[in-house]
Description:
This protein is of the alpha+beta class. It has a single domain (3-131), classed as 2,3-Dihydroxybiphenyl 1,2-Dioxygenase, domain 1 (Roll), CATH 3.10.180.10. Helix content is 23%, strand content 41%. It contains 3 helices and 8 strands, in the order E-H-E-E-E-H-E-H-E-E-E. It has helices at residues 14-25, 63-71, 85-94; strands at residues 3-11, 31-35, 40-47, 50-57, 74-81, 105-107, 111-116, 125-131. Strands 2-3-4-1-5-8-7-6 form an 8-stranded mixed sheet. Strand 2 and strand 3 (40-47) form a beta hairpin. It is globular. It comes from Adhaeribacter pallidiroseus. GO terms for molecular function: metal ion binding; methylmalonyl-CoA epimerase activity. It holds the Pfam family Glyoxalase_4.
Amino acid sequence: MNKVEHIGIAVKNLEKANLIYTQLLGIEPYKTEEVPSEQVITSFFRTGESKIELLAATDETSVIAQFILKKGEGMHHVAFAVDDIVVEMARLKQAGFTLLSETPKFGADNKLICFVHPKEANGVLIELCQERK
């Protein structure tokens, strides 16, 4: 794993959250994108080499909607950049981690993604991200 790619924050209302984070960070989001496969709409803020991803559900049955119902708004995941997601997935699986998908999926911000179950990472959902070529 190369670096923290972004921190994902689950929000109920993306417009309101965008205003809050624009004021907080002093910058506007550089991208808003819908990811139908994950039933979310996202906004990204870049601060230096770090990014914040705001995630709002587009369907009440989505993982983000269920997360907010259970835990409320807040930090959802920490994402790490990887060079080869398939190799990293195999390494983590071999080490005994539970992956939430068998193959990488298309995610926001031109990434291939895979999540590691939070029960094996001290309650933190971990996302692997590889830039799509």
